Amino acid sequence: MSKRMASAKNPAALIRAALIALALAALAVFPLVSNDLYYQAMLILTFLLAIGATGWNIMGGYAGYISLGNSAFVGLGAYTTGILAARDNVSPFLGCLAGGLLCAVAAAVLSLVTRRTRGMYFIIVTFATLQLLGIVATIWSGLTGGSQGLALPIPTWPLAYQNWPFYYPLLALLVLAVAVSAWVRRSKLGLGLFAIAGDEDKAAGLGLATNAYKLIAFVLGGTFLGVAGGIYAYYVTFLNVSAVFDIVTSMLIVLAALLGGRGTLWGPVLGAFIIEPLANLTSTSLGGANAGAIQRLECAGQAIRRKQQAGRDDRGEVRQAKRAQE
After folding, report:
1. What is the pTM of this model?
2. Per-residue pLDDT tens for 93-117?
3. How many Å apart are CA 73 and CA 222, to the nearest integer?
C-alpha cells in the first residue's frame, strides 16, 4: 500500500518540479526575447511583491504572527541604499546589501520589543512601527530629503537593456528566498515555528525557545525585503517617504500570502503573480486607482531615467557635431 502511494506521489512531484523549472526558465529568458519594458516592469514589481510575501510567510505563515509593518523593511532598505549612493557614491548593488543588514538588525530589535505581544497587539505594534519610521524619515530631511524626496544616481547603461540589472537580481533573490523558506519548513526551525503557531504556551512549556525562533523568522523575512527594497530604490532612482513606507504595500504583501496560501511554500509566490498583474490591469485598463504607491514611484523613476538618458545622448551628439566641424 505504501509503495503504491509513493509511486503515485512521485509522478506528481516530478510534474510539479518540471512546471516550476519551466516557469523559472521562462522568466529567465523573457527579457532576452522581449523588449517590452511594460511587462518587464510588471515582473520586477511582481518579484518584489513575491519576495516580500515569501519573507512575511516565514513569520506570518509558519509561526502565525501576522504583521502589517513589513513595508517598513522596503523603506529602510531603499533609503539605506539611496543615501549611500547619493551621498557617499557607493554602488547601489552594494548598498542594497547594507540595507539588508540594517533591516536584519531592525527586525531583531522589533522582535525583541514585541516578544510578549500576540494577535491584534502584535499587528498594532508592527503597524505603529511602520508609521513611526515614516515620520522619522520625513523629519530627518537633512539625511533623507524629507517630503522633497531623495534622488539616486541615474544608471549609465544603454536603454536597450535598462531593466536587466534590476530584473535578474530580483529574480535571483526570489529564488533564494523560496529556497530559504523551503529549508526553514524542513528544518528544526520550521518545526518550532509550526509548534508556535499551534500553541505557543505549550511549545514554551516543552522547552522550546520561542522568542529565539520568532526572532530568526522575523530577521529572515526582513533581510530579504531590505535587499529587495535597495535594488528597487536604484530601479526607480527617486525615493519618497509616503511611497516606500506605505501601508498599502504591507497590505498587498499580506494579501498575496493569504491568497496563495498562508503557511505554504509556493502560495505567497503564486499570490504575488496574481495580485500584481491585476493591480496593473485595474490601474491601466480599467481606470481604477493605483493599487500601490510603489507603482507611482516606478513610473516617476522610469520617466526621470529616460529623460536623463536622452540628455546624455543629446550631449553626445553635440560633441560629435563640434568635433566634425573642427
Report:
1. 0.84
2. 999 999 999 999 999 999 999 988 9
3. 6
From residue 238, how far is each of 27, 78, 300, 304, 308 by CA, in Å? 26, 10, 8, 8, 13
Rg (CA), the chain: 21
Whether 294 has a pLDDT exceeding 70, the answer reads no
Question: Which residue segment(s) compose the domain that 80 sits in?
Answer: 38-302
What is the sign, positive or negative, of the torsion defined by CA atoms of 89, 240, 135, 72?
A: negative
Report which of residues 182 and 300 the model is more confident about: 182
* 8 in any annotated domain: no
At 250, which CATH number?
1.10.3470
Q: Do residues 67 and 251 touch, judged by C-beta distance below 8 A?
A: no
pLDDT, mean of residues 224-239: 93
Q: How many domains in the chain?
A: 1
Q: Do residues 162 and 237 make contact, with C-beta atoms less than 8 angstroms apart? A: no
Kindly list the distances between the CA atom of residue 5 and the CA atoms of 8, 10, 18, 27, 48, in Å, as whole numbers in the listed order: 5, 9, 20, 33, 38
Cα dihedral 241/69/49/301 (nearest 10): 0
User: Would you say residue 44 lies in a domain?
Assistant: yes
Residue 315 lies in a domain: no
- Is residue 137 domain-resident? yes
Q: Within a 10 A sphere around the Cβ of 266, how many other Cβ atoms? A: 16
Distance (Å, whole) CA 51 – CA 236: 18
Q: Which amino acid is at 176?
A: L
135-193 pLDDT per residue, tens: 999 999 888 888 888 988 888 887 777 888 999 999 999 999 999 999 999 999 999 99
